[in-house]
Amino acid sequence: SWNPQPVGLQEVLVTLRHSTDTSFGVQRSITQKLNSFTRVPDYIAYLAHILFAMTQEADYVRSIAGYLLKNNARLILTSSPEVAEYVKAAVLRAFDDASVMIRNAAGQDIVAFLGVLEPRNWPECLSQLVNMLDLTDLDKQEVAFNVLEKACEDYPRRLDVEISGTRLLDFMIPKFLSLAEHPSSKMRSHAIACLSYFVPVNCQSLFVHINAFIACLFKRASDDDPSVRRHVCQSLVLLLAVRPEKLMPEMANVAEYMLYSTKDTDENVAREACEFWLTFAEDAELAPYLQPLLGKVAPVLLDRMIY
């Protein structure tokens, strides 16, 4: 039911078009103008309209609107219901745009608005994201999973909610576990990363599937993609800190794998694996389990030092 006023729309558009001018005087004027726009009650609706509907505009102009929309996400809390609904609908539709630049901008907006509104107040967004994971278009699958990963990383507790009698994560966790087998390494990496973020918050929906999760980690431990291996190491570190009893039956194998990963040629994997030994060393209750391994661990750590 919201529609932009032509004069206001033109004023915002002209400002966005000039925002790439690097001269100091212009930048100062643009900043002042953008700050003054935030006092307009439906400013975020204009930004959402430019991002989604103004396909005749250059992608950089539309993506700047998306960037400003993300930075002003909190304004939705004080917006009228008409403006809020328009913004939410426009962002979701922009997320299906043909342009990668626009989809990325809309993805950042979704993460910001989900954080501000909380997932329980925007269930249709989560529904769209999860449904996109089943698409045959890999690009759209990956961009949806990228947004979900950021949400899982930034506010895992907020996702652990019940909506209309259904616990959201009771559906999402098994979905992530199945996608850890995806042919695309990016999808596998997103899946394991998302699962790992629910370990520190003691998410019951994850711990119901804890054995399947650990089996998944062991299966992906030798993955060809270093990003997947890094997230496997990250997950094992988090499990050691939160649920060490689940790793104890397989500790000899886990320790061997972490030793191997500490020597990984990919620095990000090796650094993540080092966190495993740090977690061990800082927990007095785990220290006895580390002692028998020191003969193997110490030489590897010394060998991998920079100096």
Please describe what this structure looks like.
- The chain is an all-alpha fold and 307 residues long.
- It has a domain at 1-117.
- 71% of the residues lie in helices and 1% in strands.
- The protein has helices at residues 6-18, 24-37, 43-53, 59-71, 81-94, 100-117, 123-132, 138-154, 156-159, 168-179, 185-196, 204-207, 210-220, 226-242, 244-247, 251-262, 267-282, 287-290, 294-304; strands at residues 162-163, 166-167.
- It has a two-stranded antiparallel sheet with strand order 1-2.
- α5 packs antiparallel against α6 (100-117).
- The longest helix is centred in the middle third of the chain and has 18 residues, at 100-117.
- It is elongated, with a radius of gyration of 23 Å.
- The mean pLDDT is 93.
Walk me through the topology:
Elements: H1 6-18, H2 24-37, H3 43-53, H4 59-71, H5 81-94, H6 100-117, H7 123-132, H8 138-154, H9 156-159, E1 162-163, E2 166-167, H10 168-179, H11 185-196, H12 204-207, H13 210-220, H14 226-242, H15 244-247, H16 251-262, H17 267-282, H18 287-290, H19 294-304
Antiparallel strand pairs: 1-2
Helix fraction by DSSP (H/I, runs of at least 4): over 70%
* Element order: H for helix, E for strand: HHHHHHHHHEEHHHHHHHHHH
Approximately how much beta-strand content do the residues carry?
under 5%
Rg, Cα atoms, Å: 23 Å
Strand order of the largest sheet: 1-2
Alpha carbon gap, first and last residue: 65 Å
The stretches of 5 or more residues where confidence is low (pLDDT under 50) are none
